Each structure stands twice: as structure tokens, then as C-alpha cells.
């Protein structure tokens, strides 16, 4: 892995069109500003990994699994509380 | 044109039917071209069938049917590649999955489609939207008849 030291308001350039700037540093938290073309998706890695896992799980779904949805289209779902991710 | 889907058998389609996801879908980067199919046995859901991989299909629903106050909050840059004339023209769908006996919806990463242009993109919403929002129990139908 390439490791570079940067101070606040300094940037790195990736390729011709991606700029990552250190916007703020507070304690163990770094805020980054990212300028990239809109066709390049930018995600927090843990969110990216979770969505990837969920997509792959969803791709295993069988049409028969969806039967509870035909009658279960209630806005107040049963089952466990829907905790936020 | 034809593909033979593992779930739905042979499907005939026209080039205009294809919805392109230029960046693929997270975890499925090689699946760029999809068909949106109605489910004849279940009108509540539809399926995005991969043209590239016949064994890959994602069940999708319109989220407002299950979550009436669902709102997609996004950085504007995320919808720019969809070439939407206005945001009202966007079709929002969420992916259905199953987890531990429950049917869940991924409200965190909906699919935004521009059906006129045949373009789609999976986006990641701001805020605390769940990746697995429970909408039904897989055992529900059995319990009802018991």
C-alpha cells in the first residue's frame, strides 16, 4: 500500500480526475473531501461491503420465497423491530 | 434476442428492453445489462434478470408500497449519470432478499432507473436506512393456514 503524509487542506490526486483532500483532523477522526467524476461511485468501505454482501444474498432468492409478499403487503411489518443499519 | 434464465426459462427481448447499469451492481460488477420482468405468479414483485448471467436475477419492489414514508436522499452527483430530465421521471426500486426466515428490503441501497433511457444505477442513501428491512416472515403463509 502506498502511504503518504498529508496535513489539513492538502490533497492527493489519483489518476487525472480524482482529488482527495484532508478537510479536517480531530482526534482520531479525519474528514476527507472527494472530487471525482459522477460515474465513479464513492462509498464508505464498510457500507460498500455490506451492500455487496446483501446483493449477493439477494441474487440467491427463489421466486417461491416471495410468496409471503403477495398477501403480506402491510405497511406495519410483523417480526422483529427494524433496526437501522 | 433470447436468453435462457435459470429461474424463468427462455426470455425473448428487444435491444430496447435492456436496462444498462454502466457500473454494474455492487458485488455483481460483470452484470451490466438487465431486463425488468413482471412476475406472473406474484404481481407485488418484479425481477431484474441479468442478460450477462442467466443464473442471476434480483427480486425488486416499489418501496412505497411497504414503507409509505420512504425517501431517497442522495448526493446529486449520484443521479447525474442517469441522464434524467427531472427527478420525478426516476423509477425507484428496492431489492428483496431473505435473511433468517424473513423477507427483507434493502432500503439503504435502492436502484434508480431511467426507463426512457434504459439506464440504472444502485445508489447509497444518506442517513440511517436499513439494509435489511423486514417486511414479511417466510413462515407467515404456513401459520395462517395452520
Question: What does this protein look like?
Answer:
- The complex is a heterodimer of chains A (85) and B (146).
- Chain A has helices at residues 45-58, 67-71, and strands spanning 11-14, 18-26, 29-35.
- Chain A has 85 residues and is an alpha+beta fold.
- Chain A is elongated and about 55 Å long.
- The model of chain A is unreliable at 72-79 (pLDDT under 50).
- Chain A has a 3-stranded antiparallel beta sheet, with no helix packed on it.
- Helix content of chain A is 22%, strand content 24%.
- Chain A contains 2 helices and 3 strands.
- In chain A, β1 and β2 form a beta hairpin.
- Chain B is mostly beta strands and 146 residues long.
- In chain B, the strands form 2 sheets. In chain B, strands 3, 4, 5, 6, 7, 8, 9, 10 and 11 form a 9-stranded antiparallel beta sheet that branches. In chain B, strands 1-2 form a two-stranded antiparallel sheet.
- Chain B is globular and about 40 Å long.
- The relative contact order of chain B is 0.17.
- Residues 142-146 of chain B have low confidence and may be disordered.
- At the A-B interface, α1 and α2 of A face β6, β7, β11 and α1 of B.
> SSE string of chain A, helix = H, strand = E?
EEEHH
Q: What is the terminal-to-terminal distance of chain B?
A: 45 Å
Query: Could you report the average pLDDT of chain B, rounded to the nearest whole number?
Result: 90
Largest sheet of chain A: 3 strands, antiparallel
Radius of gyration of chain B using CA atoms only = 16 Å
Largest interface: A-B, 37 and 54 residues
Largest sheet of chain B: 9 strands, antiparallel
Q: Could you tell me how far the N terminus lies from the C terminus of chain A, measured between alpha carbons in angstroms?
A: 30 Å
Form type of chain A: elongated
The helix tally of chain B amounts to 1
Approximately what portion of the residues of chain B adopt beta-strand conformation? Answer: 35-45%
Amino acid at each position: 500500500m502506498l502511504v503518504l503524509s498529508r496535513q489539513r487542506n492538502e490533497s492527493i490526486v489519483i489518476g487525472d480526475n480524482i482529488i482527495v483532500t484532508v478537510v479536517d483532523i480531530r482526534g482520531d477522526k479525519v474528514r476527507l473531501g472527494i472530487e471525482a467524476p459522477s460515474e465513479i461511485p464513492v462509498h464508505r468501505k464498510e457500507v460498500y461491503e455490506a451492500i455487496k454482501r446483501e446483493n449477493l444474498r439477494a441474487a440467491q432468492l427463489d421466486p417461491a420465497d416471495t410468496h409471503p409478499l403477495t398477501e403480506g403487503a402491510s405497511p406495519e411489518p410483523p417480526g422483529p423491530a427494524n433496526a437501522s443499519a | 434476442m433470447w436468453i435462457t434464465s435459470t429461474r424463468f426459462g427462455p426470455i425473448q427481448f428487444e435491444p430496447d428492453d435492456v436496462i444498462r447499469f454502466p457500473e454494474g451492481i455492487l458485488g455483481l460488477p460483470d452484470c451490466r445489462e438487465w431486463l425488468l420482468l413482471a412476475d406472473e405468479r406474484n404481481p407485488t414483485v418484479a425481477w431484474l434478470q441479468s442478460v450477462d448471467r442467466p443464473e442471476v436475477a434480483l427480486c425488486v419492489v416499489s418501496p412505497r408500497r411497504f414503507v409509505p414514508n420512504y425517501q431517497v436522499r442522495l448526493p446529486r452527483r449520484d443521479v447525474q449519470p442517469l441522464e434524467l430530465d427531472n427527478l420525478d421521471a426516476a423509477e425507484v426500486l428496492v431489492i428483496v432478499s431473505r435473511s433468517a426466515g424473513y423477507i427483507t428490503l434493502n432500503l439503504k441501497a435502492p436502484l434508480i432507473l431511467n426507463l426512457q433511457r434504459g439506464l440504472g444505477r444502485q445508489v447509497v442513501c444518506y442517513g440511517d436506512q436499513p439494509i435489511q428491512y423486514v417486511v414479511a416472515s417466510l413462515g407467515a403463509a404456513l401459520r395462517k393456514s395452520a
